């Protein structure tokens, strides 16, 4: 019997994880803790976490901003890739998620380089300053999708020339190509794309991905000049 596409994608993800991603007790425990606390199963996959890790390393980032912590699985991947003396600021709106994330960060031994700020991101972002790490070298946006364009505007304000902005879940199982979609998350991504397209002095692309998390993708934006 032929495999369904999602079963095949999951099998390939498992193979890539088993082959290329080193076993890691802290990351496994972070996923287990999130499941035990009944957090939504929407963390990045291990290969995606490794991608974030490599991107932070390639930028040689000392200052990273994450919008949307969940259980801190992606936070751990990125914090471990910081340049010496680097710091990561992560924003989370849900107190339960924040509690799980703090425990996971402590268990992973990286709580000393991560600050978790509780509150709605659109209220927290305008308050950030150089004391919080701005301008940031890398900004990862992985939060609710309807206000993505607003998050992007704030990310630009907190960027410098050379900042890398990464946005997750931008393909929406292909629905992003449907202008008539009534899905608020799809329309949020489309507004984001319009905003990026209208922004001078940035270069951007979106990459479609498949795997254990289904059919989705990332957008990468490099800020060419201060905007």
Task: Give descriptors for this structure.
7-stranded mixed beta sheet; alpha/beta; 227 residues; 40% helix; 8 helices; Rossmann fold
Describe the structure.
- This protein is an alpha/beta fold and 227 residues long.
- It has a single domain, classed as Vaccinia Virus protein VP39 (Rossmann fold, 3-Layer(aba) Sandwich), CATH 3.40.50.
- It contains eight helices and seven strands, in the order H-H-H-E-H-E-H-E-H-E-H-E-H-E-E.
- It has helices spanning 5-20, 25-36, 46-59, 73-79, 95-108, 121-124, 148-157, 184-197; strands at residues 63-67, 87-92, 114-118, 138-141, 164-168, 202-211, 214-223.
- It has a seven-stranded mixed beta sheet with strand order 3-2-1-4-5-7-6, with helices on both faces.
- Helix 2 (25-36) runs antiparallel to helix 5, helix 3 (46-59) runs parallel beside helix 4 (73-79) and helix 7 runs parallel beside helix 8 (184-197).
- 38% of the residues are buried.
């Amino acid at each position: 019997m032929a495999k369904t596409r999602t079963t095949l994608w999951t099998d390939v993800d498992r193979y890539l994880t088993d082959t290329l991603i080193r076993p890691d007790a802290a990351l496994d425990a972070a996923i287990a803790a999130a499941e035990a606390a009944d957090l939504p199963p929407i963390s990045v996959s291990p290969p995606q976490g490794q991608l974030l890790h490599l991107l932070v390393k390639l930028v040689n980032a000392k200052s990273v901003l994450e919008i949307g912590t969940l259980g801190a699985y992606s936070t751990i991947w990125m914090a471990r890739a910081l340049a010496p003396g680097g710091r990561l600021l992560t924003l989370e709106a849900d107190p339960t998620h924040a509690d799980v994330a703090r425990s996971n960060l402590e268990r992973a031994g990286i709580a000393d380089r991560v600050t978790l700020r509780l509150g709605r991101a659109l209220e927290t972002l305008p308050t950030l300053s150089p004391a919080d790490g701005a301008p940031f070298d890398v900004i990862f946006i992985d939060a609710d999708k309807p206000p993505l364009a607003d998050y992007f505007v704030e990310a630009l304000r907190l960027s410098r020339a050379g900042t890398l902005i990464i946005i997750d879940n931008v393909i929406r199982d292909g629905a992003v190509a449907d202008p008539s979609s009534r899905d608020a998350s799809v329309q949020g991504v489309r507004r984001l794309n319009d905003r990026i397209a209208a922004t001078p002095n940035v270069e951007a692309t979106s990459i479609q991905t498949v795997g254990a998390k289904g059919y989705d993708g990332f957008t990468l934006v490099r800020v060419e000049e201060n905007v």
